[in-house]
């Protein structure tokens, strides 16, 4: 990269990463920066404003960088467009004071505070000493979060009531994991060295007490204050959040119609597969319920973790050299069991920048010990290989050829989730889902993503249910109708559906990115295939696509078509 007095966009982007890590050590830890291990961010209004000012300052520097010689190259242009779009979207959310009502069952400052410990280094006594210091920082971090929420109440900027009540339940579980009064942080430090036992236990108790204090305030002050406020955000706020998560200003009505079109297409395929499993089943979900009892399954938490590891290892061996060309660090991915007290959905955490911490998939067991296979196979193609892991680990591997920003913080949710859903469909296309149980499970997962588009847009924008819907045509969506519709079109248990709907209420616009992102990836591949004709090489296209870093949906299709 240029070292002149006029930095290029990639240099501006990477300087932004460095500066943000200084303000947000949680981000630093996820990137593998050990110096971040002892600190936590300032979640107060002042801390939020400091991060927003960094974004404004970076945009001003980007204005200058885009005029520098060499800034018009493809690699600089892509980085500049991504950085500008991402920071602009972030500032739109900040300037609307959304950070003053950040309540969620999946992603909130409190969730970040807990989750960061699961990826903090624990190899040495020095690592554990840093953990003790970070634990002692928990009260200040949570106090800053509470200060932001309190200011939101003062300004009548209310978070959604249902996620707020769910969050209180999560905080209760985190502070008392087994009913004995012992909290999650105390369980976490039990693996630490005996030489630091007293210090770690005391720090964990301090952190646990801070969680309990936040829980009590949420229960006694916040939840009563927001009682009666809407759980949905309305069209204007939804459009803002949709831009943030998808990197495009969506035509919400067109996207809603697309969700319904996919619903009808997938339902027809599900009926065909269900007939193979349980002939005459009234609905595909009757067949799936049959599989819950009589289908293939794994017994035991350790056994399912090992089985999922084997599934990812097999996928790597089958795909590497045929449909992908994987570097050795990318070939490593770990299967883990998620800590209790989180959301019900599986998730993935990417590797550290130096790959010292590999990419990991996480399975929330929700207290279960018996796991049907049908809904795990395509999910792990999504979370692991060839889904999230291949994309995010590849970004990490090629970061030196892009920019650090493009490979890490610049990730656009719809790009990432769209690739993972594309990965599920790819495995179906390649013949990995010929078993009727697994294919019906895959289609059920596809239906989940189509339903997300319908109900996420529908309930937040209060749209009408179309006339050709088999469910309540002509009525307008509410969260209650959305949950009923979701339950009728999912194999998942009621507590999972409830958790998912709470997620959609607290993270508006994120859930639609799976299906809309998949559509963008498929369209980009189709156009690249048309461009190359018989010379189209899917393996080469995959690796070029995964090596270009993040893009919003505005730019993704065009860039994919040129590969």
Automatic annotation (TrEMBL):
Lineage: superkingdom: Bacteria
Name of protein: DUF885 domain-containing protein
UniProt cross-references to Pfam families, sorted A to Z: DUF885
InterPro entries: DUF885 (IPR010281)
PANTHER family tied to this protein: DUF885 DOMAIN-CONTAINING PROTEIN, GLR0591 PROTEIN
């Amino acid at each position: 990269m240029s070292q002149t007095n006029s930095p290029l966009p990639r240099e501006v982007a990477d300087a932004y990463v460095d500066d943000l890590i200084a303000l947000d050590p949680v981000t630093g830890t996820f990137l593998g920066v050990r110096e971040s291990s002892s600190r936590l961010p300032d979640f107060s209004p002042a801390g939020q404003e400091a991060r927003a000012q960094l974004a404004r300052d970076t945009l001003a520097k980007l204005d200058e960088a885009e005029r520098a010689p060499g800034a018009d190259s493809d690699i600089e242009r892509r980085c500049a467009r991504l950085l500008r779009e991402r920071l602009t979207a972030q500032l739109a959310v900040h300037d609307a004071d959304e950070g003053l009502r950040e309540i969620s069952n999946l992603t909130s400052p409190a969730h970040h505070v807990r989750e960061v410990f699961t990826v903090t280094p624990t190899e040495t006594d020095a690592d554990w000493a840093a953990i003790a210091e970070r634990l002692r920082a928990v009260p200040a971090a949570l106090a800053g979060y509470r200060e932001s929420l309190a200011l939101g109440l003062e300004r009548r900027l209310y978070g959604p009531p249902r996620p707020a009540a769910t969050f209180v339940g999560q905080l209760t579980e985190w502070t008392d994991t087994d009913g004995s009064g012992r909290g999650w942080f105390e369980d976490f430090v039990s693996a630490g060295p005996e030489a630091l036992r007293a210090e770690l236990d005391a720090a964990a108790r301090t952190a646990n007490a801070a969680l309990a204090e936040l829980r009590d305030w949420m229960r006694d002050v916040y939840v009563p204050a927001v009682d009666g406020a809407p759980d949905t955000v309305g069209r204007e706020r939804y459009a803002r959040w949709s831009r943030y998560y998808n990197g495009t200003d969506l035509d919400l009505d067109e996207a809603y119609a697309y969700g319904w079109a996919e619903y009808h297409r997938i339902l027809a395929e599900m009926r065909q597969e269900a007939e193979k499993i349980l002939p005459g089943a009234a609905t595909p979900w009757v067949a799936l319920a049959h599989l819950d009892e009589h289908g293939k399954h794994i017994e035991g938490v350790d056994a399912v973790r090992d089985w999922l590891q084997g599934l990812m290892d097999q996928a790597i061996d089958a795909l590497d050299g045929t449909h992908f060309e994987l570097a050795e660090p990318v070939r490593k991915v770990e299967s883990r069991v998620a800590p209790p007290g989180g959301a019900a959905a599986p998730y993935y955490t990417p590797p550290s920048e130096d790959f010292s911490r590999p990419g990991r998939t996480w399975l929330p067991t929700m207290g279960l010990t018996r796991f049907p296979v049908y809904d795990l196979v395509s999910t792990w193609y999504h979370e692991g290989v060839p889904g999230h892991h291949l994309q995010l680990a590849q970004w990490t591997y090629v970061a030196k050829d892009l920019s650090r920003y493009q490979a890490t913080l610049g990730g656009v949710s719809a790009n990432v989730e769209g690739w993972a859903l594309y990965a599920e469909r790819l495995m179906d296309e390649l013949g990995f889902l010929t078993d009727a149980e697994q294919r019906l499970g895959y289609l059920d997962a596809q239906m989940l993503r189509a339903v997300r588009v319908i109900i996420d847009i529908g309930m937040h924008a209060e749209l009408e249910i179309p006339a050709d819907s088999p469910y309540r045509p002509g009525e307008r969506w509410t969260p209650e109708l959305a949950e009923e519709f979701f339950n009728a079109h999912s194999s998942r248990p009621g507590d999972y559906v409830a958790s998912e709907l709470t997620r959609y209420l607290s993270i508006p616009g994120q859930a639609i990115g799976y299906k809309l992102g998949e559509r963008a990836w498929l369209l980009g591949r189709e156009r690249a295939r048309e461009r190359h004709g018989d010379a189209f090489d899917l393996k080469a296209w995959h690796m070029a696509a995964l090596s270009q870093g993040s893009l919003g949906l505005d730019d993704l299709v065009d860039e994919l078509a040129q590969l």
